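User: Could you check the structure of this?
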Amino acid sequence: MVMEIIKIGCNGIHDGNFKISRPNGYPCYLLLVVKTPALFIIEGDEVNVECNSIILYDINYPHYYSAAHHNYINDWIQFNAKDGTDYFKLLSIPLNTVIKIWDDMFVCEMIKNMSNEYYSVNPKKNQTMDLLMQTMFIKLSEIISVSNSEKHINVHYSKLVSLRENVYSNPQIQWRVDMLASKMNLCNTYFQKIYRNTFGVSCVADVIACKINYAKDILSKTNMPINSVAEECGYKNDVHFMRQFKKYVGVTPSEYRRNSFVRIDKK
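Assistant: Sure, the predicted structure tokens are below.
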């Protein structure tokens, strides 16, 4: 699959009188990421479109859309794709259909990156944009799929994922429920509920798993003293660390290190 971007734009802003009427569409595909309420006409039917919606127009398919109330803002890509229809069918991305998605952050970021490449003098920009396009559509396919799952339909999903990434990237921090909840501007009880519903594990257990996994990695690869490992993993003292490690791993940190080195030596 090779994709060629013809034109691309980010955060195109239009006033309340904005209106598009292209009875013959474009001789290429058109992807729109709609960031404000809008009105579309598809197969003769009016469709009130919410922000964070996308539509992928087929080649030569009519385009009719306009601002709903005030400004109209979107990202857009005109592009060619050989055997594109079969490719989008394989990814379960419907053509000429408005789709409300739970999170457009990744898609918009990818379009921004592609736009930067498009206007650059990078000699490899065509190959780069092609790979970014394919990555974006694969991710969009995933987003559309999980949008149909109640587990992921909530306005906090994107922030929860970013928060979890922050926790796992910083195991040395002494994360607490109230600290995590405050980052989401949520009360502790509600935060713990949506965290478990989203990831299938409590935030407390997830923080512990993060620290234990990091400790296992350090123990198997270094000779760092146990008390230093504990400190590196955000524990106030090594006694608490050793007790928790044995509870979740089944052996003490020292035993785990010995066994890990044995396995490494045998490879």
